[in-house]
Amino acid sequence: ADRDAYLSAVERLAADVSGRRQLRHELRAQVANSALCDASGLTARIEDAYQQMWSQYVANGDEN
Fold this sequence. Notes:
By secondary structure, the chain is an all-alpha fold. The chain is 80% helix and 0% strand. The longest helix has 22 residues, at 39-60. It is elongated and about 60 Å long. The two termini are 40 Å apart.
């Protein structure tokens, strides 16, 4: 929220050695299972967005 809150969080994380170790251990799997690495899902969402844009363009004609 502000500089003091940020510094407080940094200090808390710096002091939590076991928490950082646990995060480091789990982070690669978390990223691999996230939407960030879901290429087929991302592709489907982009295709849906293109279809919606095209449908809107066709519905509006040459107004834009």
